[in-house]
Design goal:
- Helix 4 (85-97) links the parallel strand 3 and strand 4 (104-108).
- The chain is of the alpha/beta class and 171 residues long.
- It contains 7 helices and 7 strands.
Length: 171
């Protein structure tokens, strides 16, 4: 965790998954702000999906997985998830299941993702029966936290710091 870490993220991603070909995954809101510059620095492809909780479903997992398969990406792929909790869960699940598992790097851009969703390796999607009922535990090769990413969030999202207090109290 370091202010400005996104600026040097390309070298950190390369160090965390040596010899791997990065693919950046982000939602349509985060892509132009953080993911596209990182993808350019990595020389990586950028896959996007519609922003919002409604994208955290099996159909979107299948669409992203099909994109990887269409590009004939191999086991040397590393998924770089740039975004909030939805992106981290969805892209993490893609990484956990693509070719039976490839590395994932989590680059959280929301406060809750920085302090909770990006750590612990919990990945998954929602179903009509409930949240996170289909998923896997898949530990990230790297979690890259840049507090400066929070500056692009609306005020109400930055106020989500109550999660940090709750997280601290449970320990």
């Amino acid at each position: 965790m370091r202010s400005g870490a996104l600026a040097g993220a390309a070298s950190l991603v390369a160090e965390s998954a040596p010899g791997c070909r990065p693919v950046v995954i982000a939602d349509s809101n985060v892509a132009p702000l953080h993911a596209a510059p990182l993808a350019a620095a990595l020389g990586a492809e950028l896959l996007t999906f519609p922003a919002g909780e409604t994208s955290k479903v099996r159909a979107q997992w299948a669409a992203l997985t099909d994109e990887l398969l269409d590009r004939q990406l191999g086991r040397d792929t590393v998924i770089v998830a740039v975004g909030g909790g939805v992106c981290g869960d969805l892209a993490g699940f893609v990484a956990a299941t693509y070719l039976r598992g490839v590395p994932v790097v989590q680059v959280p851009t929301s406060l809750v993702a920085m302090i909770d969703a990006s750590i612990g390796g919990k990945t998954g999607v929602d179903t009509r029966h409930g949240k996170n009922l289909v998923g896997a535990f898949h530990q990230p090769a790297l979690v890259l936290v840049d507090p400066l990413a929070l500056a692009t969030l609306p005020l109400e999202h930055r106020r989500a710091g109550g999660q940090a207090v709750e997280f601290r109290r449970r320990r």
